[in-house]
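2024-03-11 09:14:02 INFO worker-7 job=invfold-0412 stage=load source=structure_tokens
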């Protein structure tokens, strides 16, 4: 049985720029088999576009990108699923997880 593709746009805020957060997100996305792209925004937040093969895969990704460490502090993670207000897609969203510089 094929899983339903789940698409989301996320905004992470806190201490998330200049601390390796984009690398953590991209590496985790690739490890979990998600597709997408992560980038810094001018306001100090990080924007994540991703696609997962089912809700379970997406939920695991969300849970793990909320986790901080000694330098990364995710104060808030807003998640906007496809067909919800605040959602948009990225041209590279369906590709292997990467970082936009």
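2024-03-11 09:14:09 INFO worker-7 stage=emit residues=101
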């Amino acid at each position: 049985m094929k899983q339903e593709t789940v698409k989301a746009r996320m905004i992470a805020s806190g201490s998330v720029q200049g601390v390796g957060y984009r690398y953590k997100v991209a590496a985790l996305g690739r490890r979990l088999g998600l597709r997408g792209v992560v980038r810094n925004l001018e306001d100090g937040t990080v924007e994540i576009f991703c696609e997962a093969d089912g809700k379970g895969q997406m939920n695991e990704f969300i849970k793990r990108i909320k986790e901080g460490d000694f330098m990364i502090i995710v104060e808030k993670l807003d998640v906007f699923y496809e067909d919800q207000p605040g959602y948009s897609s990225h041209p590279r969203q369906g590709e292997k997880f990467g970082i936009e510089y």
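2024-03-11 09:14:09 INFO worker-7 stage=report msg="The CA atoms of residues 25 and 65 lie 6 Å apart."
2024-03-11 09:14:10 INFO worker-7 job finished
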